[in-house]
Every structure is written in structure tokens, then in C-alpha cells.
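Journal club prep — side note

Before the paper discussion, L.F. wants everyone to see what a predicted structure for a comparable chain looks like in C-alpha cell form. Sequence:
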Amino acid sequence: MYAPTPSDWRDANRARWDERVPIHVASDFYDLASFRDGKEALRDFEIDEVGDVTGRSLLHLQCHIGLDTLSWARRGAAQVVGLDFSEPAVETARGLAADLGLTADRAAFVAADVYDAAEAVPDRAYDIVYTGTGALNWLPDIQRWAETAASLVAPGGFLYVAEFHPLTDVLDDETGSRVLHDYFARDAWVDTSPGTYADLDADTVHNRSVEWQHPVGEVVTAIAAAGLRIEFLHEHDASLFPRYGSLRRDEQGYYRFPTDRARIPLMYSIKASRPG
């Protein structure tokens, strides 16, 4: 249901995420035992597009329980910092870092709102500012987000964004072939669905969430207006979960449409740099 932004949107979303942290920790979806044993959490296109992170500093905005953040540390980043507004998520991430033998100077986690990141993180500039999938839809003001993220990119560094394509929220859930919603909608989307993507049948209490749809052009424009140079915008024909009933899981673990039907972008990625 589309509606004007409710005044309690942040509190509602935080309560929802706080409640789901222990569910995610226990889920097969995140499979923390395998992650501790070395299983890769990053997607192959992210690894290729971000490139070698050896010796670099990396800030992960909206990091949840920190699997992606810690994966960059495993790949050689000299320092990673994860930020999330959920205290239980940050505490879980700190525990995972300790399990991996990563000290606070290698992997630190901060509990703060993403809009307050510039004041909350330990340093004021990072070689790489990263944000992973399922992050931007929780933010009402994409211009403010872009300004915040850009302000934390060091000279010669870059911002990297990987996200679900907003077109996917316009189409019907069953087939992904019929347009049902407005791509350019500006109102908030208020949902009350129980459970979580990591466990659809989980018994949950805090089920109200408030989200926003940000067209790709709006995101790119906001990043450019914040002073970064767009290096690329890539669209991907795969998703990380079965967004539509017609998607099929491939050998790499991605979900794609069958080969006999036309494809649409299901995800996108952006790299934007600050001149040295």
C-alpha cells in the first residue's frame, strides 16, 4: 500500500530488523556455520567489479550482520567498517569478526543511522564505500544518502552500489511479466507481511515496514550530483532470490528467467569515483 511517509518509519523499520536478527542468525539462508568455515558471501560480479581490495580501507553502509563486510576483510582489505542502525545486527557482526580472529583495527562495526554515517564512523574517508543489495529501498531521501556516501569516499577512491532493480517491484509476483505498479511512485510502501526472506514461516511480531522505490535514474543522478564520477552502470539479468514464481535457480545459485522468455534487469550495480 502506497502512502505518505509516516513519522515513525525509522522506528518501525528498526523494530522489524531487530526482531529478525536472531532468525537470520539461525537460518539456512545465511548459514553462519559455513560462513565461519570460509564460504563466500559476496556475489561474483561484485568481486569482479570492485576488484582487488588488498591493503585498502572499506566502509560498508547498512551492513546488517556483517557477512559481506567481513568477506571484504577476508579478501585482503586492510580495514573494514560496517554500519547498521540495528544494535542486535551490529553485535552479531562483532561476534562474527571475533570468531574469524579479526581484531577491531581490521573489522569494526558501528550502530548508527546511515544518514549519520559521516559523524559515526571512525574515519572520515575510505578507499571504497560499499553498499549491498536490499539497502536503498529502506531510505526515503536518496539525495541525502548519496551526499553522505560521497562525503566518505577518499580522493582516488570510489563508491560501489549493488542493488535489486526497481523494475522488479513494478511487475506481478507470479510471472514478472505484467506491469501492476508505478515505476515512478514517490510515496512510501507500507507492508505488514510476517516472516522474513530468510525464513518465510518465522513467527514474528514487528511486521510493519516502510520502504521506498528509487528509479535507477534517480540513484545515478543523486550520486553524480554529490560530486562523484560515474564509471559504469551495469544491469544484471539475475536475482539472488526467486522474486517471481517463473524464475529458475542456475548452477551459480542465481535466479533467472527460463531461456525461452524475454529477459529484464533484475539487479544493477554502479561504480562512481572521486578524482585523486
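L.F.'s comment for the group: Helices lie at 9-26, 32-36, 44-50, 67-74, 87-99, 117-120, 142-151, 216-225. Keep this in mind when we get to the figures.
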